[in-house]
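Progress report, Aim 2. The chain analyzed during this reporting quarter is listed below.
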Amino acid sequence: MRIMVFFDLPTVSSEDLREYRIFRKELIKLGFMMLQESVYVRLALNATVEKAMIDKLRKIKPEKGLVQVLSITEKQYNNMETLVGEVKSETLDTDDRMVIL
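Predicted structure tokens for the chain:
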């Protein structure tokens, strides 16, 4: 199962920016990875882990702004398609510059 966090936080004042940075850093500490700019995702092994993670998110959410959480199955997550833009991957899938020692 995957936990997706969507957030829209204000960034007008320096205090808003500070809260934004703190929230983002806490998401990363909890094991979330950025899917898009304001969309983070994390793997949850079962419903107990999911519930515990959502409770932690409630504790770290900023006072201002909107934070939404969506839990989906691994099958649903794997059916996601990228419709616009190109997919960038850090995985090398060619041996064009492979050096054999």
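The beta strands are 2-8, 33-36, 39-43, 66-72. The CA atoms of residues 6 and 68 lie 5 Å apart. These observations will guide the mutagenesis work planned for the next reporting period.
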